[in-house]
Amino acid sequence: MANSNKSSTADTALLQLRKEIDAIDDRILDLLNQRARCAQQVAEIKTAAGEVDCFHRPEREAEVLRRIAENNRGPLSQEAVTRFFRELMSECLALEKPLAVAFLGPQGTFTQQAAYKHFGHAIQALPLPTIDEIFRAVESGACQYGVVPVENSTEGVITHTLDSFLRSFLLIAGEVGLRIHHNLMSTVSSSEEIREVFSHQQSLAQCRGWLDRYLPNVRRTPVSSNAEAARLAAVMPNTAAIAGEVAAELYGLTILERNIEDEPDNTTRFLVIGRNPVGATGNDKTSLLLSTRNNPGALYAVLEPFARHGISMTKIESRPSRRGTWDYVFFIDVEGHRDDPRLAEALKDVEKSVTMLKILGSYPRASF
Length: 368
Description:
Blueprint: H1 2-48, H2 58-71, H3 78-96, E1 100-104, H4 110-119, E2 124-128, H5 131-140, E3 145-152, E4 156-157, H6 159-167, E5 171-179, E6 183-186, E7 196-200, H7 201-206, H8 208-214, E8 219-223, H9 226-235, E9 239-243, H10 245-251, E10 254-257, E11 267-274, E12 284-291, H11 298-308, E13 313-320, E14 328-335, H12 341-351, E15 356-364
Parallel strand pairs: 1-2, 1-3, 7-8, 7-9
Antiparallel strand pairs: 3-4, 3-11, 5-11, 6-9, 6-10, 12-14, 12-15, 13-14
């Protein structure tokens, strides 16, 4: 009898909680649509003012996500609430004007995942086969933005992306950090049947140790993307691909081994490229492209103003300038926005000691 009473009490409590959840869900739904109507009104105001190309404001989105994360008291994690509001803003923006975003295709690449992480899923995502074509799509206005990989925590920079900035007028509008998990996938049921492995050359390098240990005699063939590797493995017998989980689902492959990357914290940084400058948010980065005279102390003259003005430099990378033998340009990331007084003063001083200074963009730091 006592157990029956306890069960009845528990059932009553559960019923009450479910009713409360239903009521909360109804309020959330009303508020979501209320926010969406506000977004539509914003679009109407901008259209009336002639701002037809300014619907998307990266700095505004970054500020909203930062405020939401700071105000979150749990039990939901910061990442969970940020991801939810990113998708909410994506859907609301699509009511105003859907964004066209180019990414390194085909479907199922890590670059596509980075695009969705940054913009949400309510975008017109356009897969393109090369980084050059992504730059051209944004330069021509066919897409508002592009997403390109720029560096990996294990293998370093993607030189093709850096070289593209030498030729392009585009600006960096954002950055995305994505944890990369590589999986071995195939149509075969055992890795012993595999004779060839396809993947992007960066992914092959990031899994070199695992491949040396478990598939030492299997041919490794670099291809244009991990998604292309999955497509090939789906049609060619006794082959496998190294790619993300999404690619396995898209191309009907079985994942034989998960997380085969050599470094457990393997992360790739992606850049968002666009045509318009981004306003300051208070938590920004600025990327620079510069060249110096080939004189003793030339690089010190470039770096000294940053130290003197208290500007933290987070990255420096050299690349051949393609203008002459042993002539180099430097890609530099510093903390702050180009409009911040201290950084603006530092850049004025730097400009005095270089032969070329190009600001590639000031943009919000990755939010999560």
